[in-house]
Amino acid sequence: MVAIHWTNEAELWLRDIHSYIAKDSKRTASKVVSDIYNKVQILKNFPTIGYAYDKSEKDSIRILLYGHYRIAYVLKEGNVIDILGVFHGSLDIERYL
Known about the structure:
The structure is a single chain. It contains 2 helices and 5 strands, in the order βααββββ. It has helices at about 10-20, 25-40; strands at about 5, 50, 60-65, 70-75, 80-90. Strands 1-5-4-3-2 form a 5-stranded mixed beta sheet. The protein is globular and about 40 Å long.
């Protein structure tokens, strides 16, 4: 089983997602963020389940999908996963990775 580490940037993305959705519904915002967090937990047992982001040059970035969101992560040595960010599907992910 691997350990999951949320980077500061990934946590900021989650806060931004929550803030944006909370403008309409705080309950929905909390559910979406909670569901994203729960989706990431699958990586503990299946770290390579996300597809390989083929435009990654230096790291082997993988993408896990949840609804309209793409969760970018890197599987590092020592069975550690760094969550890099959570991006809405409408964003140009290449600007951030």
